[in-house]
Automatic annotation (TrEMBL):
Official protein name in the record: DUF1993 domain-containing protein
UniProt xrefs under InterPro entries: DinB/YfiT-like, DUF1993
Gene3D superfamilies found in the cross-reference section: dinb family like domain (1.20.120.450)
């Protein structure tokens, strides 16, 4: 039986590593083309879609902040990032990864079956910790990570499927 930490800490850490990797590849790509990396901070796939900086913020929210919500029982809509440059986005991901790594499996697992309330303004939503992670944060995380990947691909960053997938969780015998 999977533990709550199995559906949070490991896959969320992997997603953060993937986002850091994608942004690092983007940095190298744009620098090789003498293109300013800050030019893509506000990049959108379409006019009515939120920009790359929002996608990074959402990745941080649906990894670290989702895990913290499991611990505290409360999740809130994130505040906008405000002015941030490309380097700041990478730093945000790295800091999020560092803070996530400081949360222990025991802390997360002790909250199994507990309530998490998403304080959505129109209607608060109540979940179990597991349902919050599996039906809300994980799908949101993958949506925003996919959008980040697509934004970078659209700009010519040479990415592959394995860049998106990241580290695989193989059995110990592998």
């Amino acid at each position: 039986m999977a533990m709550l930490s199995d559906i949070t800490l490991t896959p969320f850490s992997n997603s953060l590593n993937v986002a850091i990797h994608l942004m690092t590849k983007a940095k190298a790509h744009f620098e090789s083309q003498n293109r300013n990396t800050n030019d893509i901070v506000d990049l959108q796939l379409v006019d009515n879609m939120l920009p790359l900086s929002f996608q990074i913020n959402a990745i941080c929210q649906h990894t670290l902040q989702a895990t913290k919500a499991v611990l505290s029982s409360n999740f809130y809509i994130p505040s906008p990032l405000g002015e941030i440059d490309f380097h700041g986005l990478i730093k945000l991901l790295q800091n999020t990864q560092k803070e996530l790594s400081e949360i222990t499996e025991n802390e997360v697992n002790s909250r199994s079956g507990e309530t998490v309330i998403f304080h959505y303004p129109e209607r608060p939503m109540t979940f179990t910790a597991e349902n919050f992670i599996t039906s809300f944060s994980t799908p949101n995380l993958y949506f925003h990570q996919t959008t980040l990947y697509n934004l970078l691909r659209k700009e010519g960053v040479p990415l592959s499927k394995i860049d998106f997938i990241g580290a695989l969780s193989l059995s110990p015998s592998e």
